[in-house]
């Protein structure tokens, strides 16, 4: 790659690029408004249509609340009723009134009554952003979410989140997941800011130390995704279902990008609050980014980032998922902010070039959520366009500081 001539040439300081990001963010938010259903928010198809009988989904609802809260804080009209609708759904039909916590769908109608750490992390993130946006009911939802995290999911001896429980909080799953703990880290960063508590940054550091500094460092800085209850890797996990949307077999380059960004947010947040920030946070972020680029980008002869790799770092599932590119561009922006090194500028521009040319759907709106090896839209893993959160954050993160939550950073910039 060729370095740019000056740091001042960065797209991060380019007013036209910042406006382009704003325009993209506005379009994504407008597209997602159609996802509202009586019990929360549902998944949209690839044309942005919502079937009349589409059920509310708790993860989708929480991500929408978070995203619409960020949009409202920026001053985008039409979002406050959607935030309030999502908050009411999370406090009502999506919540388990008997045992506490949240179902995957309204009243557990999909038959899945297990309580999952991944889902609860997003409820906490949504509540924290809505609280910064000043919406009624957000503070109570945040208090409820924190209580559930404290009482059930956080394992102090392990320094990490437990994975899932039965609906009555029995039957703790004998599995530990890097994905749920990654999004737990994201939620903890927001909680530390919104609640003004160092505790959450200390917990985030413990998760990162275990999942990244210990395990990923032993796997060429591509995070190991699946562990048993003693945090021993499970290399064959889901080998018969390699394209699972949440627990795929092997390694996931997109998560290396996502972790790289989160480590830099954690470093900045700890420094801002006067807490020790280990040097390995930056170094591990560099290594994660480098490995993801080396083993994920253009590795099968075509442009894009493959979804998964095997244990020899060879592609397994070669589809290109939109969230992976969103996290790659955001990680490049974070490393560029932190280091001012031209290498990350080149990667940042390269990722957005790909997104612009292949991911953005200029005919039907939003981004294609999945492309095949030929970079044409497909729906093998993720049908439709249910996810506002990843793409929208990718338009925000390059314009915000690394420390404090996205919601608080946007509020300070108004």
TrEMBL record:
Keywords: Isomerase. The lineage of its organism: Bacteria, Pseudomonadati, Pseudomonadota, Gammaproteobacteria, Pseudomonadales. This is Mannose or cellobiose epimerase, N-acyl-D-glucosamine 2-epimerase family. One of its GO terms (molecular function) is isomerase activity. It comes from Pseudomonas deceptionensis. InterPro entries: 6-hairpin_glycosidase_sf, 6hp_glycosidase-like_sf, AGE/CE. Gene3D superfamilies: 1.50.10.10. Belongs to the N-acylglucosamine 2-epimerase family. GO terms for biological process: carbohydrate metabolic process. It holds the Pfam family GlcNAc_2-epim.
């Amino acid at each position: 790659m060729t370095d740019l001539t000056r740091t001042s040439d960065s797209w991060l300081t380019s007013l036209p690029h910042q406006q382009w990001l704003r325009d993209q963010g506005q379009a994504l938010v407008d597209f997602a408004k159609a996802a509202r259903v009586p019990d929360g928010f549902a998944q949209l198809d690839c044309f942005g249509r919502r079937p009349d009988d589409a059920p509310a989904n708790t993860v989708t609802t929480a991500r929408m609340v978070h995203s619409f809260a960020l949009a409202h804080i920026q001053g985008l009209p039409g979002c406050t009723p959607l935030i309030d609708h999502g908050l009411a759904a999370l406090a009502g039909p999506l919540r388990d009134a008997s045992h506490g916590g949240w179902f995957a769908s309204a009243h557990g109608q999909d038959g899945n009554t297990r309580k999952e750490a991944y889902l609860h992390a997003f409820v906490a993130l949504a509540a924290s952003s809505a609280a910064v946006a000043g919406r009624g009911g957000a503070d109570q939802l945040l208090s409820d979410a924190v209580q559930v995290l404290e009482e059930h999911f956080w394992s102090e001896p392990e320094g990490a989140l437990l994975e899932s429980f039965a609906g009555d909080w029995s039957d703790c799953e004998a599995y530990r997941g890097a994905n749920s703990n990654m999004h737990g880290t994201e939620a903890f960063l927001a909680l530390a800011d919104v609640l003004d508590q160092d505790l959450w940054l200390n917990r985030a550091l413990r998760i990162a130390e275990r999942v990244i500094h210990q395990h990923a460092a032993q796997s060429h800085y591509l995070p190991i995704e699946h562990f048993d209850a003693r945090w021993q890797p499970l290399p064959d996990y889901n080998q018969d279902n390699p394209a699972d949307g949440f627990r795929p077999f092997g390694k996931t380059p997109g998560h290396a990008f996502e972790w790289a960004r989160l480590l830099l947010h954690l470093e900045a947040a700890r420094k801002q609050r006067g807490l020790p920030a280990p040097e390995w946070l930056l170094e591990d972020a560099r290594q994660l980014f480098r490995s993801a680029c080396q083993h994920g980008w253009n590795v099968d002869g075509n442009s894009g980032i493959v979804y998964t790799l095997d244990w020899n770092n060879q592609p397994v599932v070669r589809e290109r998922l939109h969230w992976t590119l969103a996290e790659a561009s955001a990680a490049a922006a974070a490393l560029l902010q932190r280091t001012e090194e031209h290498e990350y500028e080149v990667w940042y521009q390269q990722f957005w070039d790909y997104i612009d040319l292949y991911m953005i759907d200029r005919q039907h709106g939003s981004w294609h959520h999945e492309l095949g090896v030929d970079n044409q839209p497909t729906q093998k893993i993720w049908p439709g366009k249910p996810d506002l959160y990843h793409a929208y954050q990718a338009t925000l993160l390059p314009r915000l500081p690394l420390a404090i939550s996205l919601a608080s950073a946007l509020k300070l910039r108004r």
